[in-house]
Amino acid sequence: MFKKILCLTLAVVMAISMVACKKKSTVDVGHVPNENTLCEEYTVLTAFYMQNKNTDDGSYDSFKEAARLTNVGLECTIPKSNSDFFQAFNLMVASGEMPDIVQTYNATEFNQLGAEGAFVPLNKYFDIMPNFKKILDENPQIKENITAFDDNIYYVPFMPGGTASAGWFIRQDWLDKLGLETPQGAEELYNVLTAFRNNDPNGNGQKDEVPLFGKTVVDELMPLWGARPDWYIDNGVIKYGPYEANYKTAMKNVVKWYKEGLIDQEIFTRAGNPRAKLLGDNLGGACVEWFGSTAAYNDTLAETVPGFKFLPMAPPSGVALQRRPINDVYGWGVSASSKNLELAIRYVDFWLGETGSRLMNFGKEGVHYDMVDGKPVFKIDDIQKTLKAYGSQLDIGFQQNFEYERQWINDIAYEGMMMYVDNDYFAEQFPTVTSRMSKAEVAEYSKLKTDIDTYADEMMQKWILGASDIDQTWGEYIARLESFGIKRLIELQQIAYNRR
Ligand code: CA
Predict the structure, then answer these.
(1) How many Å apart are CA 116 and CA 118, to the nearest integer?
(2) What is the pTM of this model?
(3) Distance of CA 118 to the CA centre of its chain
């Protein structure tokens, strides 16, 4: 009886799904009808998908596996010789010939083109996108972030797994050696960094330690004095950190710390990977960097730097500015001109369901992972690289499962991430305001923002490097920001933000 009902259900589902299908090929992809079947006969959809240039025949193995499961193939339409995404994207738009599915790295532009009729408002098709609808119902903030100014949704974003991305790390073995506690607050941090600078924790008899390093560190110091380095949201009010009075106080402290050698003297000019250099040479004391890759230095430097112990610590200000975005600005959408419109929409939704999601997160069962107690457990080396080569963890619209990352980061990274998550150190995510702006507003916004950000960044570097005195130039700096239109830029973003 059960079997009969299942067959009937499947037949109904398939009858609905197949309306839009057109046979394009007789290729045998090994399809056996199942609950993921999207077409009775094998059908190929076209896609603007940049990463495909890495494969010989324009298709990843993961897409072939999806074809076996759904009976729908995906063919990339970008010439392999084209290496610039935005150039290729603009050429495609200008040609007026859109493939069925289009990848995006720019939500703002994609939403504008969508509003002009190039892409399908996916929200009108939620009845055939049950997986996408479910994700958005469960994550209203993602829905809010990706909704365009005309209240439509034009793309499925990449949705990262986990919240923590980067965090503070400190040489625990140096703290132990000098008899110091993990610093909290500006004063304790100052004292610890000064001790790193003066008391030779690397034991080579030279005052060569670089207490704080990494480009993001200046930003992450700002909240110690209540300031912010960039755009932020304060109880629903959009503010520009470098335009606020407390920024001057914070900057004056950073200038002092830099002058005293507590911050890497080459902070703006150091090329390559500062961690590899400064940790490898046993010089760096603390930084704010990615949990996974930073914690990995404990493994790779275990033999070359005796006693090396670089551990995550709580942000000394209690606030972590860097976090994994709730959704990214990249993903993919469906062309309004697609001849296989409904099929393309269903195909995009396939990658958000249980089978598609597992394929995009973990690869192929039995090859890349085995199911253990209902959970995929990797059985491959070099997980990230192997999966990318297969075509999992691509830059498409899908929901990343944190378990993917959990299985290749070490325990130090994981515990650091959990410390940040459990204590909720994260600052509120700044909303993607531009995706809610009209074309004219975006043009005005972009011009103002470029000038203002460039100027503020230039002054910040001048102050820190000692090329300009902050007390002497602050008044002129504020006046310049105002003449560049800072008030209008804040207003434009506030208007867009209020459109939620
Ligand atoms: Ca030393």
Answers:
(1) 6
(2) 0.82
(3) 26
Pairing of strands 284-290, 166-171: antiparallel
Average pLDDT along the chain: 91
d(CA 65, CA 17): 19
At residue 424's C-alpha, the angle toward residues 421 and 425, to 5°, is: 105
The pLDDT-based confidence of 14 (bands split at 50, 70, 90) is very low
CA 151/CA 45 separation, integer angstroms: 27
Angle formed by the axes of helices 245-259 and 470-483, to 10°? 140
pLDDT at 16 over 50: no
Q: Cα 197–202–208 angle (5° rounding)?
A: 45
Could you tell me the distance, in angstroms and rounded to a whole number, from the CA of residue 280 to the centre of ligand 1? 14
> CA-CA distance, 54 to 395, in Å (whole number)?
13
Q: How far, in Å, is the centroid of ligand 1 from the Cα of 213? A: 16
Closest CA to 125 of 344, 360, 330, 331: 344
Residue 249 contacts residue 225 (beta carbons within 8 Å) = yes
Cα-to-centroid distance, 194 and ligand 1 (Å): 13
- Between vectors from CA 289 to CA 288 and to CA 293, what angle results, nearest 5°? 150
- What are 28's two structure tokens? 């045998």
CA of 222 to the centre of ligand 1 (A): 28
Give the mean model confidence (pLDDT) for residues 432-449: 90
Q: Which of 17-26, 32-41, 402-411, 465-474 is predicted least confidently?
A: 17-26
Give the integer Cα–Cα distance in Å for 433 and 232. 11
Q: Span 259-276, mean pLDDT? A: 95
CA of 184 to the centre of ligand 1 (A): 24
- What is d(CA 267, CA 259) in angstroms, rounded to the nearest whole number? 12
Distance CA 110, CA 98 (A): 13
The mean pLDDT value for 216-220 works out to 94
C-alpha to C-alpha distance for 419 and 413, rounded to whole angstroms: 10
Helix (H) or strand (E) holding 118: none
Q: Assess whether pLDDT exceeds 80 at residue 418.
A: yes
Question: How many beta carbons lie within 10 A of that of residue 34, not counting itself?
Answer: 12
Task: Kindly give the distance from the C-alpha atom of residue 207 to the centroid of ligand 1, in angstroms, as a whole number.
Answer: 5
3-state SS, residue 334 = strand
Distance of CA 424 from the midpoint of ligand 1 (Å): 36
What would the two tokens of residue 498 be? 């209020």
pLDDT score at 81: 62
User: Which H or E element spans position 73?
Assistant: strand 72-76
> Quick check: 341 and 120 in contact, CB under 8 A?
yes
Taking only Cα atoms into account, the Rg of the chain, rounded to an integer number of angstroms, comes to 26
| Residues 6 or more apart in contact with residue 257 via CB below 8 angstroms | 190, 193, 212, 221, 263
